[in-house]
Design goal:
Elements lengths: L2 E5 L6 E5 L4 E5 L2 H7 L4 E7 L2 E6 L4 E5 L6 E5 L5 E2 L1 E3 L4 E5 L13 E3 L26
Parallel strand pairs: 3-11
Antiparallel strand pairs: 1-2, 2-5, 3-4, 4-10, 6-7, 7-8, 9-10
Organism: Neptunomonas phycophila
Protein name: GFA family protein
Family: Belongs to the Gfa family.
């Protein structure tokens, strides 16, 4: 059984997960766009795993979109996404960006791509920089 650890942006919350990830979805649904403020969510799914909060469990807030499996936990201080146990599918859902240890598997699939943000299509030719570009770039 593998050991993974993670935390929020401000460091108020940290966790460990004992288990293996079975899937890694890049979800382009409109709920994930709203929840992340970006083109997609990047979530790992770990069935039959044990999530332990090491610090800051009382600082976690959870939101569930009505009548859906869309559940998001986040730090009440910095807003960073955090893992959530979804009992109905017996899985811990871990936002990939919350991990402090390396993400051990590549993305499994892009899902709900029909709902994808139009501005995120055809971005292969968009310039890439290793850091914030200067005004002249």
């Amino acid at each position: 059984m593998n050991h993974h650890s993670g935390s929020c942006l401000c460091g108020a919350v940290s966790y460990e997960l004992l288990g293996d990830f079975q899937s890694f979805f890049l979800c382009h649904c409109t709920r994930c766009q709203k929840g992340t403020g970006s083109a997609h969510a990047a979530n790992l799914f770990a069935a039959d795993s044990r999530l332990t909060w090491l610090r800051g469990e009382s600082d976690i807030k959870t939101y569930q979109y009505p009548d859906s499996l869309h559940i998001k936990s986040f730090c009440q201080h910095c807003g960073a996404a955090l893992p959530v146990l979804i009992e109905s599918i017996n899985s811990v859902v871990v936002p990939a960006g919350s991990l402090d240890t390396p993400v051990p598997i590549p993305p499994t699939a892009k899902i709900y791509v029909a709902d994808g943000a139009p501005w995120f299509k055809n971005i292969d030719d968009v310039p890439s920089f290793d850091e914030l570009p200067t005004r002249g770039d």
